[in-house]
Design a protein that fits this description.
- By secondary structure, the chain is mainly α.
- Helix content is about 60%, strand content about 0%.
- Helix 3 packs across helix 4, helix 3 packs across helix 8 and helix 4 packs antiparallel against helix 12.
- The C terminus is likely disordered.
């Protein structure tokens, strides 16, 4: 059950409210909206809805098979649903972390980080190739959660993350900031500042980052976007540019070790330069 579809009217309403807030209460320190950037984000969001119909069917088939072979069966009680949301959030943390640490997965996720603006439309800038959740949510099915529970819990996770894509909300009450993912934490995640790279992967809860040492508090002003920003607003190019770059690097790789690294190592990985042959030492004078 994909609840995000039902949340679309609320997304649109909140997006309009944020645009009006920038219109009538501008903040020079915040980037706000830009027409072309927002249009690209909305286009990517619409495309992801269509693409996820196909990925959703594959996920349903896989999770149903796994749910059918596991001896576990979590009931659809209030606590069962609460556990489903918690389990999905835990495995989402590792999915999200893998998307930053494995270049092939980053090629899908980079879409979401490609905007140099940070507003509610950025939340809608989603990948069209998001098949990885099929694998990363598979353990949740083996733990005894039905495919319907996984779909619903994953939707809750994505819906929650919509509101944290904003600069209009500053830090919240400390106990909330300690446990929950907030706009402040997620602004860090979208930063290209050196100290902000690959930090704050949590979906609903930020405690996973605290536990697994990937947490970074918001300090200096965040520079949104990529370390090497793209210069296109074309949705198709935004969707596939990193796959194209991987193909280029693989074609020009020196060997299979480098080819493997270009695909499965981190996005910034490159082979160590070969050490140049040292000159032969001069013979000692007689």
């Amino acid at each position: 059950m994909d609840l995000t579809t039902y949340a679309i009217p609320a997304f649109v309403l909140l997006l309009v409210v944020e645009i009006l807030a920038y219109r009538f209460a501008p903040d020079e320190e915040q980037r706000g909206y830009a027409a072309k950037d927002t249009a690209t984000s909305l286009s990517m969001g619409i495309g992801s809805i269509a693409a996820n119909l196909g990925w959703g069917i594959l996920a349903l088939l896989l999770w149903d098979v796994l749910f059918g072979v596991t001896p576990l069966d979590v009931p659809g009680t209030w606590w069962g649903w609460a556990l489903a949301v918690l389990a999905v959030d835990f495995f989402y943390y590792w999915e999200h972390r893998a998307m930053h640490e494995i270049r092939l997965l980053w090629a899908s996720h980079v879409v979401h980080h490609s905007s140099r603006h940070y507003n509610l439309s950025t939340a809608l800038r989603q990948s069209w190739t998001g098949a990885h959740h099929l694998v990363f949510m598979a353990p949740v099915a083996l733990l005894g959660f039905s495919p319907a529970m996984i779909f619903a819990a994953y939707s809750v996770n994505l819906i929650y993350q919509f509101w944290i894509h904003t600069e209009r909300v500053h830090r919240l009450w400390k106990p909330i900031e300690y446990v929950w993912n907030t706009p402040s934490h997620h602004r860090v995640h979208h930063g290209s500042n050196k100290q902000y790279l690959d930090r704050n992967y949590g979906g609903i809860l930020i405690v996973w980052d605290r536990l697994f040492r990937s947490f970074e508090p918001e300090g200096e002003k965040v520079d949104y976007g990529l370390t090497k920003n793209i210069t296109t607003y074309n949705p198709l190019r935004v969707a596939v540019h990193e796959y194209w770059a991987i193909g280029h690097d693989v074609r020009h790789a020196a060997g299979w070790r480098e080819r493997f690294g270009r695909v499965f190592r981190g996005p910034g990985w490159s082979p160590a330069p070969r050490a140049e042959a040292l000159p032969e030492p001069a013979e000692a004078a007689a």
